[in-house]
Amino acid sequence: xxxxxxxVSITFYEYPKRNRWWAFNQMQLAIEPLKKAKGVKFFxxxxxxxxxxxxxxxxxxxxxxxxxxxSLEFAKNFTDSDAYLRFNQQCRSNFTYWMxxxxxxxxxxxxxxxxxxxxxxxxxxxxITRARLRWNKILRFLSQVPESxxxxxxxxxxxxxxxxxxxxxxxxxxFSYWQSQKHMETFAYQSGHREIIxxxxxxxxxxxxxxxxFVPINLDKQGADSPSR
Length: 229
Prior knowledge:
- By secondary structure, the protein is of the alpha+beta class.
- The chain has a single domain, classed as Alpha-Beta Plaits (2-Layer Sandwich).
- The protein has helices spanning 20-29, 31-35, 72-75, 82-88, 138-153, 181-189, 192-203; strands spanning 7-14, 40-49, 58-69, 93-106, 125-133, 158-167, 171-178, 206-216.
- The protein has an eight-stranded antiparallel barrel.
- Helix 5 (138-153) packs antiparallel against helix 7.
């Protein structure tokens, strides 16, 4: 890949019980330090849901840091950055998924966070979906969460999924990792999940939404070390 192409990372940090209050406070306190990270054009620090995939129950030990890097040179120095070290010193473990966007539509707080490098793939694919709910649709949305989680739990080809978000119930997102685009599309368009999407569109649940697809990349092969778990 071209060293000047945009790289996206999402890191999941797991904290021991003694540091969870610190981690929660970083949702506000870390904003300014993250803004100073070199080569980052967009970032979001988010809480996560417990259980399988999206869940109404928060996972108080795990937080997600999504970062969009201007180039490979900045991305491969991630483990030396203040943004990484600040959390790594307090967490029990962490793991980063590296990826490049191949499709994106919609906005995140009015921004288009991902630059698209259009390409087709027969291999693994990652997906981020994000929505800001209308206040009068929150209860309707929450009523569908258990069904959505059950559908994801039985999805063939799903490697990993985690509910992520900036605000409980109001601003929700999911990250999922699939064996192939075919597996992902089978779940999205040919299962119970399709009915939920139909309700979303028909009843206009969302004030803002974004859907993006990515291909995983291996920074080891690009001359950089991946963070250890």
